[in-house]
């Protein structure tokens, strides 16, 4: 603990964002380049090095947060990077994309603003790359065993890297033309520039991991045949079966799933397209769904110069303070949070129907309205109470010629054939069933990430990847594994 009084003398200060007018004119990350280093040492000093650090428990990776906070405050970046990478394969991803449940579990957060754990993590990760502390770590010797990992999202990549470093020959199969899963085509560039992803992929290639892109297992390669070619298979395909909105007018042209819209915008940034065929430019956009994916659509539509953008959230607007009775510390509370996209939409007044930002809370879609050509032109909504019952007299229509559905995902997509070809058992909710060792009902086949857990956070996906790697390693070696297993398949976030 470098400064025993840091939490008393230093206020919380977060990574500053670039001015709204500047950042909506490009697709670069929203933060001020280099804006962390001048403040991060004092922010790390705010860590109290608690005797029982609940930030460990709140993060499924078990990140050694007080240790690397202390090292950052002492400017020992190499040691900080070592402690950070000891529990997290991709801290530059989580430092940008994770909603930071660790900060909700920070002991300081009981009665003060939490330590900026996420910002400290990101600063360490970026400094590690700048200083050469993230060199490839190939295995000393090979085991002679082979593993196929299906899916290259955070769970698949974490599993692949751990197993490669343990000496196994690992091949990652990805149906898209580039590695990264939703991090590649679902996460907008302004949240995480793809150079961070490319850097890790190159590191993994240097360590020995092989990648097979544009290969849909279940179609291009039979899943049962693949199982016969490898000693073990890890299914980490994610939860890509999107939820629908079965209301009148859903068949109208101009209504799309968020994951139809976002990949096209990302492909424009990759240089594959000159313009997205679903571009929001000049259109009245309504986003149905109040989560992070909806916010990603919002920020994208703003940059595409939409005529207006409104986001609907069926839940009532949460408060700005923790509800100590229903959401006591150290659980992750539902709070009114202003993401970069919401800040932009509020400053630019993209949603005339909304008050502070682009969101309409407690709003439920009744139907879509279209024109004679079958194109959507409006969305009819109604305000709902806490039990989601319509409030009489609150119906109204929003102009809409592009509607984006961001309602989450129900489980893995069964259309690719993997589940049927392998004969995998499913849970009632549609996820892949597995035992306490992450193994499915098919010998040698394991499941990790959202495909088995259900839709979750990036930290849980990475933790799943690390844990399934340990399980596969035990299976292949016939004994104990030296790989860490931060969670079990039945672990869940802290709740009341």
From TrEMBL:
InterPro entries listed in its UniProt record: 4Fe4S_Fe-S-bd, DPD_II, FAD/NAD-bd_sf, FAD/NAD-binding_dom, Glut_synth_ssu1, Glutamate_Synthase, Helical_ferredxn
Pfam families tied to this protein: Fer4_20, Pyr_redox_2
Keyword presence, Flavoprotein: no
Family annotation (PROSITE patterns): 4FE4S_FER_2 (PS51379)
Keyword Secreted: no
4Fe-4S ferredoxin-type domain residues: 36-69
Protein's pathway: Amino-acid biosynthesis
Keywords: Amino-acid biosynthesis, Glutamate biosynthesis, Oxidoreductase
PANTHER family for this protein: GLUTAMATE SYNTHASE [NADPH] SMALL CHAIN
Full protein name: Glutamate synthase subunit beta
């Amino acid at each position: 603990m470098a400064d025993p009084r840091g939490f008393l003398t230093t206020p919380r200060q977060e990574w500053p964002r670039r001015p709204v007018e500047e950042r909506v004119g490009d697709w670069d990350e929203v933060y001020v380049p280099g804006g962390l280093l001048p403040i991060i040492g004092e922010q790390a000093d705010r860590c109290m090095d608690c005797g029982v650090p609940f930030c460990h428990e709140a993060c499924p990776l078990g990140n050694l947060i007080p240790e690397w906070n202390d090292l950052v405050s002492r400017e020992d970046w190499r040691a900080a990077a070592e402690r950070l990478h000891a529990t997290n394969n991709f801290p530059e991803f989580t430092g940008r994309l994770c909603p930071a449940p660790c900060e909700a579990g920070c002991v300081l957060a009981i009665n003060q603003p939490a330590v900026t754990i996420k910002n400290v993590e990101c600063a360490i990760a970026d400094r590690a790359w700048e200083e050469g502390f993230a060199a490839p770590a190939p295995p000393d010797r090979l085991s002679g065993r082979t593993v196929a990992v299906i899916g290259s999202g955070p769970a698949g990549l974490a599993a692949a890297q751990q197993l490669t470093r343990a000496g196994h020959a690992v091949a990652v199969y990805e149906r898209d033309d580039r590695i990264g899963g939703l991090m590649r085509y679902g996460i907008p560039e302004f949240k995480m520039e793809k150079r961070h992803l490319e850097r890790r992929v190159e590191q993994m290639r240097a360590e020995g991991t092989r990648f097979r892109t544009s290969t849909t297992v279940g179609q291009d390669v039979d899943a049962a045949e693949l199982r016969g070619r490898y000693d073990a298979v890890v299914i980490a395909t994610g939860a890509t079966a999107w939820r629908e909105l079965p209301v009148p007018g859903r068949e109208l042209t101009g209504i799309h799933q968020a994951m139809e819209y976002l990949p096209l915008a990302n492909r424009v940034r990759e240089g594959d397209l000159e313009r997205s065929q679903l571009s929001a430019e000049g259109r009245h956009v309504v986003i149905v769904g109040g989560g992070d994916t909806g916010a990603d659509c919002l920020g994208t539509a703003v940059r595409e110069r939409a005529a207006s953008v409104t986001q609907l959230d069926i839940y009532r607007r949460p408060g700005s303070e923790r509800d100590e009775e229903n959401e006591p510390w150290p659980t992750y509370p539902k709070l009114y949070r202003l993401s970069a996209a919401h800040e932009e939409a509020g400053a630019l007044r993209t949603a005339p129907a909304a008050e502070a930002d682009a969101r309409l809370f407690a709003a439920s879609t009744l139907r879509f309205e279209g024109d004679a050509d079958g194109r959507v032109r409006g969305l009819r909504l109604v305000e709902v109470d806490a039990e989601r019952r319509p409030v009489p007299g609150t119906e109204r229509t929003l102009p809409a010629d592009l509607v984006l559905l961001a309602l989450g995902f129900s489980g893995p997509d069964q259309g690719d054939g993997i589940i049927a070809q392998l004969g995998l058992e499913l849970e009632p909710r549609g996820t892949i069933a597995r035992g306490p060792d992450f193994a499915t009902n098919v010998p040698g086949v394991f499941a990790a990430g959202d495909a088995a857990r259900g839709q979750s956070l990036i930290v849980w996906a990475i933790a799943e990847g690390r844990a399934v790697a340990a399980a596969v390693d035990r299976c292949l070696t016939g004994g104990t594994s030296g790989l860490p297993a931060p969670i079990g398949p039945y672990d869940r976030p802290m709740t009341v």
